[in-house]
Structures are given as C-alpha cells and as structure tokens.
Amino acid sequence: MMLKTDVVVIGAGAVGSAVARELSKYNVDVIVVEKNEDVGGDASKSNSAIIHTGYDAAPGTLESQLVVAANPMYDDLVKDLDVPFSRIGAILPAITDEQFEKLPEIKAKAFKNHVYDVEYKSGKELLEMEPNLNPEVKGGLWIPRESIIDPFILVQALCENAHDNGVRFLLNTKVVDIKTEKGKIKSVVTTGEEIETTYVINCAGLYCDEIAEMVGKAEYKVVARKGQFFILDKNTSCQVEHIVLPIPTKVTKGKLMCPTIHGNMLVGPTAEDQDSKVDKSTSAEGLQSITNDVKNLVPGVNVRDTITQYSGLRPNRNPEGLNFDMWDDLEGYVNLSGVRSTGLTLSVSMGKYVVEQLLNHGAGFKLKDNFIKKRRGIVKFSECTIEEQDALIRENPLYGNVICRCETITEAEILDAIHRPLGARSVDAVKRRVRAGMGRCQGGFCGPKVIEILARELGVSPTEINKNNDGSYMVTGSTR
Ligand SMILES: Cc1cc2nc3c(=O)[nH]c(=O)nc-3n(C[C@H](O)[C@H](O)[C@H](O)COP(=O)(O)OP(=O)(O)OC[C@H]3O[C@@H](n4cnc5c(N)ncnc54)[C@H](O)[C@@H]3O)c2cc1C
Predict the structure, then answer these.
(1) Which of 67, 196, 438, 474 could connect to 54 by a Cys-Cys bridge, CB 3.0–4.6 Å?
(2) What distance in angstroms lies between residue 315's CA and the mean position of ligand 1's atoms?
(3) Is the CB of 268 under 6 A from ligand 1?
(4) DSSP one-letter code for 24
(5) 243-269: buried (b, 16+ CB within 10 Å) or exposed (e) per residue?
(6) Beta bridge partners of 325
(7) What is the mean pLDDT of the chain?
(8) Residue 423: is its pLDDT beyond 80?
(9) How far is the CA of 124 from the centre of ligand 1 (A)?
(10) What's the gap between Cα 303 and its chain centre?
(11) Ligand 1 mutation pick, 159, 177, 344, max ligand atoms within 8 A of CB
(12) Is 353 exposed, middle or buried (0-12, 13-18, 19+ CB in 10 A)?
C-alpha cells in the first residue's frame, strides 16, 4: 500500500522533531520516518545537554543566527511542553596568563554574535561563585544565559506535541530511497510502506549524506566526531553549580564540567573524528584526557564517583558548517547538514527557519486555528511534596510501588511512559522518559522489573522486550 502525505520528515532527533512540531501549526499533513524504535534521535540523546547562547559561534553564519535566536525561545517552550530546564549560566575561567589574554577576543566575538550579556569577572568573583574552581584562576567570563535541559524530554515533548497536533510517526522504519520525477519529489521508499509526498526534509543527522545521495545531492560527507563523557554520582564530593567551560579551540568547545538538570555531574566531552557512524565505545585514553583537562578547571573533580560513561557522535560535515539547502532543480527537497555541536539548541529555531523557507518558496501552508500548544509531562513523584505524594497514592496505589530505588521512580510513572502517545516500547525508552535505571545502580535493580512491566503492559513475552532497537533482547529464555 502507498501512504500519502504533504511532508515527510526524515529523522526524529531534535531537529526533525522541532521541524515536525512547527509544521503541525499549519494545515498540512506530516509523516516523520524514524529508523530507531523510539523518538529521540541519535546525537540528540548523547550530548552535553546545554542550551547555548551562541557567544562563541562563527559570527555571520547560519549557525550563529539560529543559536542566538533559539536561546530566548526556551523560556516559553519549556513551560508549554513541560521540559526540565535551568538557566544556571556558564563561567569561562582563564587559568593561565595566555588564556587570560584571550578573554577580550572571546568577549568581542560574543558581541559580534549579539550576545551582549557576557561579562568579565575577577578571579575572586569567580571563586565566590564557584568555590571548587582552580584557585589559580586569573579572571574570566560569565555567560548568564547558557542553560541546561533534559535532552530526552525535550525531543519526546516536541514529538508528543506534534503527534497531538496530527503528525504521524513511523518508528522502526528506515528510509531506503527517494523517488523523483521531472525535477520534483515523488515518493519516499521505506522499509515499511512507500509514501507519496510533495516535500522531503532531510533531518537524518549522521546519515544526512546518505539521504542526500538518494536524490543526487551528495555534495558533502558526514564525519562522525565522537565525544566521550563521565556521569558522576549525585553525591560526589566535588561539585559545580554552573557550566564550567574551558577556553574554546577551533576544533571543539573543549571539555567542561557542569551539573545535569537532574543533579549529577557531567564531565567531558572529547572530540575525536572517526570513520564509523556506529562506534560509540569509550576508551581509557579518551576518558583520561577528560580527567587531565578538567582537573585544570576543577582540580578536585573525582571521576572515581562515575556511575556511567557514554559517548555521542557529532554529525560533523566535510566541508564544515551548518547548511540549509534547497535546489531549483529538485522541487520539494530540503537538506539539513552539519548540525554539529549546537543542534540541540538550534533545533527549535531551525524548525521555524525551515517552515519560513518553505513558505517563501511557495508552500501554501495555512496556520491552523486549533493548534494545541501545551503538552502534559509525566508526574515526577520524587519531586512532589509529602502531601502531593500522599494524594497521588490515594488516587492511584501504583504511585506507592517504587520500581527504581536510586531515582525513586514509581510503577505509575512507568505506566504513563508506556501508555502515552509515542509511548516507551523498550527498556531504554522507559529510562529516557522517567529515569528508571539512570541512577547509581544503572538499572541493576530495576532493569528486570521494567522488563516485566513492559512485557505485561504490551502483552508480549519478556524475551521480546528489547534494550533499545529491534534484536537487542535482554532476556533470552529461562535457565531452569
Ligand atoms: C558529544 C556531543 C555533545 C554535544 N553537546 C551539545 C550541547 O551541549 N548543546 C547543543 O545544542 N548541542 C550539542 N550537541 C549537538 C547536538 O546533539 C546535535 O547537533 C543534535 O542532536 C543533532 O540533532 P539531529 O536531529 O540533527 O540528529 P540526530 O539526533 O542524530 O537525529 C537524526 C535521526 O535521524 C534518524 N535517521 C537517520 N537515517 C535515517 C533513515 N535512513 N531513515 C529513517 N531515520 C533515519 C536517526 O535514527 C536519528 O534518530 C552535542 C553533540 C555531541 C555528539
């Protein structure tokens, strides 16, 4: 059977989700095609989770324009979509004289990017703000609007809200070809059904070059740039309250230390170019380089308090740079590439930019008058007052059954994660929605219980429950 739509968005990472949500404000039919079992993307679920200001972007670029525009949008967006977010601010300490001399250049760049709230701070002021900073600090910059977010919830929320507004999501479905006719998009061939469509928006991140190849527009290559991280226990002795950033280099923003929105310490990332788009291993050398570099900023950082390590792959582009492309000889095709180190932040302004460009190119989309702006998040039992918890348990006793002890996640929250629109179908999908398994024991205790609940609620055997994508079974059968 052939499906029919107006727009196919390829990829349900931050960018595809934001594009889909923006389109859902209009009277236009949209299908998001995602090869993974869940929305959330690839790079979008393995990053530093910082909403940047754009202070250090290359001035005059599309990336600078979009990051600077995006940052203020988060104040309303996170309220509408119920996404954990905090404007904790960043400090950029200069530890050496050489670094100190670079500060005016960095501040001038921030001003070129229209980020005017960047300020100098003395070493003394920085140590008052951040007592665990290297006491040698000579001074630095304060960037108040650098912020932290829950990147998983951001993308889920964008997708759930797009879904509430009529967008269809085809998960576990890979785009394998795009058909064109007389210089126009005709259809998208997937591992599921073929979709007849007028527009295709390529938001495939690491694989955007392979999609571009399908329409003969492969003018670049994606080079994965790996970033490794440590996540430290919430109780680690040496903590920071702000995002502590090193002086950036041409290749990377450098290795930082900051709190996550849920109170762990995040330390990293590295920046290592690699050929593989799937190798997300961490390495002893990579992790050691993080420890070495971050100790210059925060000497007491204790990586022995690590509860997990992970890595993400930045969809870097060769030739470099964030690109938005449409072609006169290929009507209906939009290509996004080089969404590299700031894509989580700029996803929301990119959504608006894409739609504006389509409208400017003659798309006759009309705004709906019934757009649902708000999304209801999952109740966080652990963040409720005793009275609220009591009321929740009286209303639904499953709030009284704690499944994840480290993060105090209840069975009721897991059921909400499974049964809401675009609900969780795998153990990782539950984890990203409610944090069961994100704590100190990393699912050692609650993992089997989550498998049991998923199997019961989905009416399948535990052997059919995946960790994430199809085939990543966690239970293979009984031992006796
Ligand atoms: C280490 C690291 C740190 C970072 N830190 C930050 C930060 O602090 N702040 C910030 O703003 N940004 C940060 N970023 C960048 C940010 O994470 C990315 O730019 C952003 O997530 C890219 O989003 P995306 O939607 O383009 O790509 P992705 O999240 O990769 O999503 C692309 C989606 O397309 C799907 N797809 C691909 N091919 C196909 C196909 N053929 N058919 C169907 N689906 C397909 C994939 O499965 C995936 O879900 C960081 C990135 C990394 C790796």
Answers:
(1) 67
(2) 7
(3) no
(4) T
(5) bbbbbeeeebbbbbbbbbbbebbbbbb
(6) 335
(7) 96
(8) yes
(9) 38
(10) 24
(11) 344
(12) buried
The pick from 55, 159, 189, 207 for probing ligand 1's pocket by mutation, whose C-beta has the most ligand atoms within 8 angstroms, reads 207
Q: How many CB atoms lie within 10 A of CB 111?
A: 12
DSSP, collapsed to helix, strand or coil, labels residue 393 as helix
Ligand 1 atom showing the smallest separation from residue 176 Cα: 41
As given in the structure block, the two tokens for residue 260 are 């996550």
For ligand 1, whether the C-beta of 34 sits within 6 Å is: yes
pLDDT at 479 over 90: no
131 Cα–ligand 1 center, Å:
34
Would you say residue 192 has pLDDT above 90?
Answer: yes
pLDDT digits (tens, 9 = 90+) for 247-290: 976 656 789 999 999 999 999 999 999 999 999 999 999 999 99
- Cα separation of 75 and 294, whole Å? 30
- Bridge partners of 452, per DSSP, are none
**CA 46 to centroid of ligand 1, rounded, Å:** 8
One-letter identity of residue 99:
Q
Say how many Å lie between the CA of residue 205 and the centre of ligand 1: 5
Determine whether 52 is an active site residue.
yes
Helices (H), 83-201: 97-112, 123-129, 151-164
Residue 299 has pLDDT above 70, yes or no: yes
Alpha carbon distances (Å) from 138 to 114, 294, 341? 26, 17, 28
| Residue among 35, 147, 231, 422 whose CB has most ligand 1 atoms within 8 A, to mutate | 35
